[in-house]
Amino acid sequence: MSEASTPDVSRHGMWSSRWLFVLAAAGSAVGLGNIWRFPYITGENGGGAFVVVYLLCIAAIGAPVMIAEVMLGRQGRQSPINTMRALAKRSGAPRAWGLVGWLGALTGFFILSYYTVIAGWALFYIFRMGSGMFTGADGALASSAFDAFLADPWMLAAFHTAFVAGTVFIVARGVTAGIERAVRWFMPGLFVLLFVLLGYAMTSGGFGAGLEFMFGMNWSALSVDGVLEALGHAFFTLSVGMGAIMAYGAYVPRSASISSTVLTIAALDTLVALVAGLAIFPVVFANGLEPGQGPGLMFVTVPLAFGQMPLGALFGVVFFVLVTIAAITSSISLLEPALAYAVETHGIRRPRAALALGLVCWVLGLGTVLSFNVWSDIHLVGQMTFFDFMDYATQKVMLPLGGLLIALFAGWVLPKTIVGEQLGLREGVPALAWAVLIKVVAPLGVLAVFAYALLG
Q1: Contact indicator for 60, 445 with CB cutoff of 8 Å
Q2: CATH assignment at residue 450
Q3: More confident residue, 5 or 244
């Protein structure tokens, strides 16, 4: 592929503007982890001290790898699989580098298979909160209600099916009519709902405690494990290593600045996570509850907290609508890499490819559904259920491996002419800083994430 033959337009369509790409990529990055995990680990690891370290990790590792993914995508203008094949050939590199695209697409697809199950929980809780079930409820009721839900495979499968169907419907319509139109409405809606919840939290009586939990500058609480957690979250939160950002990068206009756009996305992702914490924890503290971690926070503690407050059922519904929006904007990005490849390589029409891939995803997701009930005693490796194994393989092995290989390819294999063309970095301090970050700092950081994920 000569430089002159590099296409300016993807066959799948293009983002209408830089801001639509920002919203789409931010939607991919903002997911379930932003709503419950980031606020919790911030509070547990020194508050403001953790945020400072996290922002440094974003700048040194997360953003450079994301910039590399967008750059590769925009240069290739194809699915991640075909982009990596073409760029490896153009770089005179071994064909094995093309497998990086396969790794990303498969990682995203496998994550999607269980992500839609968990997202289905949030969808179900919109109706559960709206029913008034948690108004005046105690902890035993909130916990037993969640346990009973997990024990019902038919109910889990129903909401998993609904979420897969919604994802397929949006992606089948294409980049402009489907994904872009969805994020054009969903992302502004997400920000509005988030700040509505923040305003409600400010009247809860626990806002001072939530603010101190999230932003108190407690350096003594920041351990080595906390630093590694900041490093890991800086990498995982931006959706790098799973093909989604490379696929979205293929639709970015040539005129858009990749570096400034990625920094804007990282800032929005961080803002959502921090504001989510300020919206959740004041409500939790106002009711004298302890902040839990994981599903225990989102599906037990938060419903219980809203149930104790005036208009709690209404704002509980708002909260789970917010979580569902965050999940759907992530899920559509996870399906796009595999779908783009099917359309390009096999000539399958987009709606048919979306339906076929959605069906495979749905079937795989049933393994996760059953892991919480019928198959809970079946272990694939060690004590891992089907869901545990899928989560471990993708989050602890495939994602960091994909991010590491992308950094190495962009830093050590890709011709400097492409970097200069895509990023406008040809010489001087900015070019040197990019080289150091992508060749040395980011790979070492991702290796640390890899080691911590496997051993920590």
Answers
A1: yes
A2: 1.20.1740.10
A3: 244
The CA distance from 429 to 426, in Å, is 10
Cα-based distances in Å from 250 to 13, 50, 73, 74, 105: 9, 34, 4, 4, 14
Structure tokens at 286: 């106002």
Own/partner long-range contacts of 95-98 (Cβ < 8 Å, ≥24 apart): 97/405, 97/409, 97/413
**What would the pLDDT profile of 120-138 be if each residue is shown by its tens digit?**
999 999 999 999 999 988 8
Percent of the chain with pLDDT over 90: 71
Residue 292 confidence (pLDDT):
66
Spatial distance between the Cα atoms of 85 and 13, rounded to a whole number of angstroms: 21
364-393 pLDDT, tens digit per residue, is 999 999 999 999 999 988 899 999 999 999
**Cβ atoms of 263 and 63 closer than 8 Å:** yes
pLDDT above 90 for 289:
no
At 347 the three-state DSSP class reads coil
Q: How many domains does the chain have?
A: 1
The C-alpha atoms of residue 370 and residue 372 are separated, in whole angstroms, by: 5
Contacts of 75 (CB under 8 A, 6+ apart): 6, 83, 87, 418, 421, 422
Residue 31 has pLDDT above 50, yes or no: yes
- Computed over every residue of the chain, the mean pLDDT equals 92
Confidence of residue 4 (pLDDT cuts 50, 70, 90): very low
Domain coverage including residue 85: 3-455
Tokens of 156: 């889990």
- Tokens for 57, please give them: 């990790």
**Which DSSP letter does residue 97 get?**
G
CA distance 406 to 99: 11
The candidate with the shortest Cα–Cα distance to 202, out of 285, 126, 297, is: 285
Q: Report yes or no: 272 and 60 within 8 Å, Cβ to Cβ.
A: no
> In sequence order, which residues have a C-beta less than 8 Å from that of residue 197 and are 6 or more positions away?
279, 280, 315, 318, 319, 322
Average pLDDT over residues 409-436: 91
Helix, strand or coil, per DSSP, at residue 384: strand
Q: DSSP per residue over 399-422, as a string?
A: HHHHHHHHHHIIIIIS-HHHHHHH
CA–CA dist 314, 135 (Å, integer): 10
Alpha helices in 132-257 (DSSP H): 139-150, 153-172, 181-202, 207-215, 224-236, 244-249
